[in-house]
Amino acid sequence: MVRVEMLAVGKELLIGRTMNSNAHWVGRRLARLGSMINEVTTVDDDLDEIGRALKEALRRGPDFVVVVGGLGPTHDDMTLSGISRALGTGLRRNEKALELIREHYDKRGMGTVELTPARLKMARLPAGSVPLKNDAGTAPGVRLAAGGTTIFCLPGVPAEMRSIFRASVEPEVRSMLGRLHRSYVRMKLVGVLESALAPALAKELRRHPGAYIKSHPRGVREGVSRLELDVALVGTDTGRTEAEGEAVADELALAVEQLGGRVESVRGLKGGERRWK
Amino acid sequence: MVRVEMLAVGKELLIGRTMNSNAHWVGRRLARLGSMINEVTTVDDDLDEIGRALKEALRRGPDFVVVVGGLGPTHDDMTLSGISRALGTGLRRNEKALELIREHYDKRGMGTVELTPARLKMARLPAGSVPLKNDAGTAPGVRLAAGGTTIFCLPGVPAEMRSIFRASVEPEVRSMLGRLHRSYVRMKLVGVLESALAPALAKELRRHPGAYIKSHPRGVREGVSRLELDVALVGTDTGRTEAEGEAVADELALAVEQLGGRVESVRGLKGGERRWK
Fold first, then answer.
1. What is the value of pTM for the model shown?
2. What CATH number should be reported for the domain holding residue A269?
3. Pairing between strand A181-190 and A149-154?
């Protein structure tokens, strides 16, 4: 297993201004590779909080920490400064980063943009960092190593985060993971309470300890309880993983019927929605 | 200041299945009171991870930890067990919680629902806990104290989380905070780069160190840069807080114009959208 943590930086995430869609997107992306985010920490734009949270994350010994947010030109963009403090590296002007920033302004026909302190700030990286090209914005991403952990810093603007994640983060995670297949089935259930289904879920999990089996209550409409039920499996063999996933889903559908409920629909990750036979 | 942390539990949040809208909602709710969430930690449905994350949160000495998710009847609902382990309290059947669960089934005309182990599980709380009525679902919330910190455990289903938060969490936070007023202005800016505006933002922040001033890049459309700019202030005096917020916004609008940009619209928390004069 590969351990991946995310450290999301930004007060906007803590005051309900912005939904942490970056954690959602990265989690989804990693889940498709057969992995996941193991922990997300969200902290304020504050040097001490950023430094402390990074140190705590590193103590948990992850393979990767993806730090998101706080790379821009404004006063509250202090992620690199917080990281540099936590690691004791100091910040240095990185010529490659400066070149990327210049290129960005050139490409947008803004070659005459003056490299003010606010702009130069985006090129001041923790010593030992490698800047990562940002195809969707100005501030480069940053890659650096700390002990056995690789730290990636990405901008918080979703388009920029995604672009650098795809190009620079995902390939490294994938190569550490190896090739995995994930089967995924989602069922919509009606007329069965989660508490009634609980023993059947536990029983299937005992039979298939590697499976991810999880029910999500979707409220009660017209006196009828509604649930969503997810079944996921990760394995190296595509056929076997798909077959095991199908088998778990079939067993659970049977249990639902025995409890007087009904499977309204089933959806696999690959196929579209289909009615249950 | 009151320090509030959230510990969100659930693999669905880490694999991009579910957006952490609970953190967003709670953050927004607290921001209206003049507070915020200081840190959000999201972990897997795993006893060790839950216990460790709670211990780490308590070490940071918050006034409140709001734990969300993992209170239900299924195998993966293990929040209370994780907390009990971390605090060394043990789990005990709580008669008040059992009564709340029974009442819930009664009210839904399901008085004959058998109290199976899965259902009884929702009444097994860390010793010393107080159950909190859940008006929107089955599993009661839980309140317990650990040192100087009050821990609230709420179900992950948003309607249930919100209902218990409003009824049982918010009044306690509010009484610790006292009565605060928050002024909030959001401006949409066109034609000015974030990096160009950065010095003006920093200058305003030096003048008003208690202000929250933050720009959010909203991309470039037809060669024109777009930003959103938030200004928030918290204070005990309504009139003064509003006036200071307005003054900061006015100064920043002037700076935007001096940089060749334009304020497209301004929105206050109370009023609707209005064009900038």
1. 0.94
2. 3.30.70.360
3. unpaired
